[in-house]
Specification:
By secondary structure, the protein is mainly α. 75% of the residues lie in helices and 0% in strands. It is built from eight helices and no strands. Helix 3 crosses helix 6, helix 3 packs across helix 8 and helix 6 runs antiparallel to helix 7.
Amino acid sequence: MSILHLDEDIKIFNKEDFNKNKQSSYDHSSLNTEGLINSALSLGASLVTVMLEHNDNVDFKHFDGYDMNMQIRMLFAFTICSTLEYHCITNQLANTALNSFYNTLKDLDADFYDDLATSGAISFYYLALRRNNDVERRMGQTFAMLCDEDGNGVFQELGEALYCKYSNIVKNEMDKFSLLKR
């Protein structure tokens, strides 16, 4: 058998057929996909508004002028991120909502966005979350540590209660946009 004869069995990629098939498969699901993407974008923006309007500020400044309220907002932002990642119906929609959250936050409160990006608090919370046991308690311990009150039961309980509260707020918001995994 010659090489020329073998070549007849090889199919050459046809770009026009590929584009036609790609377009037709997209058309079948475009309405649902577009609606879900728009819901995820709206959810991300909505969560920024919820976070910025929510007021769990504590009436005192921590020792040496340390503002514990900043840590409260950091915990809320982390809870938004982790709840989206773990409870959204798909990873792609969770990422879309997260991108919308960060973009909207940057537009509405650039200072907090910068603090969130540079603080390292999110990393500490993710480390605690990934231990996979007694998550609420670990969030409380991490909150206390970030408030320079490592081991302080009052700060741990406050962090734990806020984490639980914020998680429920985010899940309720996700449910409004039909993006909560059942």
